Amino acid sequence: MRDRIIVIGGGLAGSEAVYQIAKRGIDVILYEMRGIKSTPVHKTNKLAELVCSNSLKSTDIYNANGLLKEELKKLDSLILKAGEFSRIDNSISLIVDRELFSDYVTNTISKFENVKIIREEIKEIPRDEIVIVATGPLTSESLSEDIKKLVKEEYLSFFDAVAPIVDGESLNYEKLFWADRFSDEGNYLNAPLTKEEYELFVNELLKAEKVELHEFEKDIKFFEGCLPIEEMARRGIDTLRYGPMNGKGLINPKTGKRPYAVVQLRPENRDKTAFSMVGFQTQMKWSEQKRVFRLIPGLENAEFLRYGVIHRNTFIKSPKILRETLQMKNYENIFFAGQIVGVEGYLPSTAMGLIAGINAYRLIKGLKPIFPSKYTMTGALLYYITHQDIKYFQPMNANFGLFEDIPKHLKSKAKKEYIVQRARREFSKFLEEVWNM
Ligand SMILES: Cc1cc2nc3c(=O)[nH]c(=O)nc-3n(C[C@H](O)[C@H](O)[C@H](O)COP(=O)(O)OP(=O)(O)OC[C@H]3O[C@@H](n4cnc5c(N)ncnc54)[C@H](O)[C@@H]3O)c2cc1C
Fold first, then answer.
1. I need a surface site. Which of 114, 146, 263, 437 has the fewest CB within 10 A?
2. What's the predicted TM-score (pTM) here?
3. Are residues 16 and 39 in the same domain?
4. Among 280, 307, 334, residue at a domain's last position
C-alpha cells in the first residue's frame, strides 16, 4: 500500500504538483538538488525560481496565455497565486517581482506539515513509488542517464530546434499553392520565390541579429539535418535552395513551372489553421524573424504563433511515452511534468505539474486519473504532447493554433470568442470531475 508521493524537482511544475497533493492531505517528499548542486542557470536555492524573464505573459482572455491563466486559477494554482501576490504593475502582462514570487512558493510549501523537502540530486527514478519527475529543461546528467534507460535512448532529447509557426489566417493564399513533393495529395502549402526574391531573402538572413547562446549551450552539436537556417545560408548562396527551400518535385500551378526556391508550410492541425515553416529552425532574434520571414511572398503579414528557437532543453518524446494523464504508458506510477514533457514556458510547465499532481493524488486514492478536453488550453497542450507525430515533435508553447474543429467561417475576433467560450464550457466539465472526485 503506497502512502506517499515523491516529487523530483522543485521548479515551477514540481512546486505546483507538491501543493496540489499536499493540500489534499497526502504526504509528499520533494527532492530538489539546488542547495547541494545547481543547474547552469539557476541562481538561488529557492523553489520555483524564474530563470530568465520575470513575465508570466498576457492576462488577456483572448490570448492563449490568458486563457491558460484562467484555467490555472480555477484549479487553485499555487504558481498563479504567487504571480498575483508578487505582481509589480497592472499592465496586461503578469510581470512579477521574482524574489517575492519564489519566496511565496517556498514559504507556502514549507508550511505544510505533510511535505518534506530534501536537498539531494536524485540519480535514479524509484520504479516502485508513485513519483513525479519534474526536473525541467536542465535535468542533471546522472538522472538523464536513468531517464534514457526508462524511456529508450532515442526518446530523450537534449536540445530543441523549433521552427516558427504562423497563423493560417494571416497568410496571403493568392501567392501560395498546395502541393507535396512526394505524393499527389498536396499536403503542404508552398510559398514560391523568384531568383531576386530568394537572393534578397538570403542576404537579409545573413545580416539578421541572432540570440547569443549561453555559455552552457555552446557545446550544442547540431545534426546536419537540423542546422539553423542562417547557418545553412552562411555556407553559400545556393545552400538553402538545395536544402529546405528546394523546389524539386513542386510545380507552381500559376506558372506551370518549378519555382526557383520555395518555403514549405506544414499544417499543424487537421483544420489547417496553423503552419510550421519546414526546416526553418533558427537562432534569429524574434523581431528579426518577423522582419526577415515577412519578405517571403505570401507571408508579408504573417502572425507568428510561435517563433523559432534553438536552445538546450532536456525533453522526452512524450507521444511515445506518456498518456494524457501524464503517467508513463509502461509505468502507471511514474508521472512526468513540466517542461520535460515537451511544453515550453513557465505557465505551460506549471499546468503540467498541476495535472500530474492531481492525478498522482487520484492514483494513491484509487480514483481514475483524468485530463481536460483538448478544447481547453491545458487539454490542448496535453493533447499535443501525446498525439503529435513523433517525427516532428518539438516543445510547444500555449497558442490558439493548437485548437481544432473551429467553424471555418469564423475569423479573427469571432474565432477567438468561439475558442474561449468552448474552452470555458469544456473546462467546467473537468472541474466537476476534479472537485466531485
Ligand atoms: C536559459 C533558460 C531561459 C529560459 N527563459 C524562459 C523565459 O524567459 N520564460 C519562460 O516562460 N520560460 C523560460 N525558460 C523555460 C523555463 O525553464 C521553464 O518554462 C520552466 O522553468 C520549466 O519549469 P520546470 O518546473 O519544468 O523546470 P525548472 O523550473 O527548471 O525546475 C526543475 C527543477 O529540478 C531540479 N533538478 C534537476 N535535476 C534534478 C535532480 N536530478 N534531482 C533533484 N532536482 C533536480 C532543478 O534544480 C530545478 O529546480 C527558460 C529555460 C532556460 C533553460
1. 437
2. 0.94
3. yes
4. 307
